[in-house]
Amino acid sequence: MPVPRRRSLVDLAPLAAALAAALVALGCVSAPNSQAGRSGDPDQPASVTRTDSARTAPAGEDPDGTDTPAEFKADVGDAERVAEAYWRKEFKAAGLRFEPVAQLIAYEEEGEVSCGGQGLGLNNAAYCSAGDFIAYDINWAFAAFRQIGDAFIFYLLGHEYAHAVQTRLRIQKEFTIEQELQADCMAGAYIGDTERGGTLKLDDGDLDELAKGLEAVGDEPGQPWFAEGAHGSAKQRTRAFDTGYERSLDPCGVS
Fold it and tell me: 0.70 cut: is pTM over it?
């Protein structure tokens, strides 16, 4: 049986000094799949201390009444539903059976959620094939939501959902960077296609928010492209996302 590999794949540079943000990290967890349309190893189940059923938004309200926990919760739910509907439609068009990601888990503490026996850290979002779930540090994600904007949440969920789709299609690239840039392209396609289809409406400034987020998640200068955990430079990641956004899935190499 395949054993899921846990990889902390992106170390985000500080968004900006004015944002007063700590170093943000976006991690991705993926593994070879033993069945098309299914993900996870029953011998390596996910371990969850608490799930998002008990924690749907971080505590505290924005004194200005904007970017509140309620808005964050709604955007996370919308991003999940839009991504699921998009991939269900794409799989159906290809004559394939689609299985949505089993669970979206919010956590607060390091190690509270594990993938294949390895605890997920803070400042992290990840897809784990063991248990077929997407998990995210809710406090970190909420901070990014307030600092970058709601469009980044749709990118974040879209990127992790793309890893789930890669697993379902048994796409396993030789190098991490290839896997990650493809996921960025797929996230761009999901956002661009749903916008063109009228399901998703980008407000003024949303594309700027996405550009800011993609710039933040680029690898540090000098990161070898072949290194385990490499995602690509800010320029490479932005190009991959823009390609999917403008031209849909065809240039993403999804088959």
Answer: yes
